Amino acid sequence: MAKVIPDAILDAMLDAAEGTHFAVCSAEPANYADIANVDLINQAITGSYTAAAGDTNGRKNTFPAQTGASIIASGTATHFVTHNNTDTMYVVTTVTSQALTSGGTADSNAWDHELADPT
To answer: Are residues 5 and 118 in contact, defined by beta-carbon separation less than 8 angstroms?
Structure first.
């Protein structure tokens, strides 16, 4: 018997991990409250996620590219976090380490997170 999770269920699981806000951080936050201790950028997401077939199998959500994000503190960016701006951190990923200067702006590329088909 084959193992199957319908695409609609995988999409719902990915949708549950979508945040309304993002933060670029100088370290990996331990939890939602810790974001405030390490954020260099923290603002609402512009654009919307795009659901599609995964690169190998399963499903993926692509986070929209962001432009002109306001840098609120100087430091070295190491992590990108999505959250709901209330109490929940959803996705944390590493970024290419780079120095950010307060008062400037930064752009981010689109990126995706995926759920593979069961095996």
So the answer is: yes
How far is it, in rounded angstroms, from Cα 116 to Cα 46?
27
Q: What is the pLDDT of residues 48-63, one digit of tens each?
A: 999 999 999 999 999 9
Contacts of 34 (CB under 8 A, 6+ apart): none
- Quick: pLDDT tens for 6-38: 999 999 999 998 999 999 999 999 999 999 999
Nearest 5°: the CA angle 26, 114, 5 is 145
Tokens 């981010």, residue located: 108
Asked if 44 contacts 103 with a C-beta cutoff of 8 angstroms, the reply is no
Q: How far is CA 12 from CA 18, 47, 56, 115, in A?
A: 10, 19, 19, 11
Query: Model pTM?
Result: 0.91
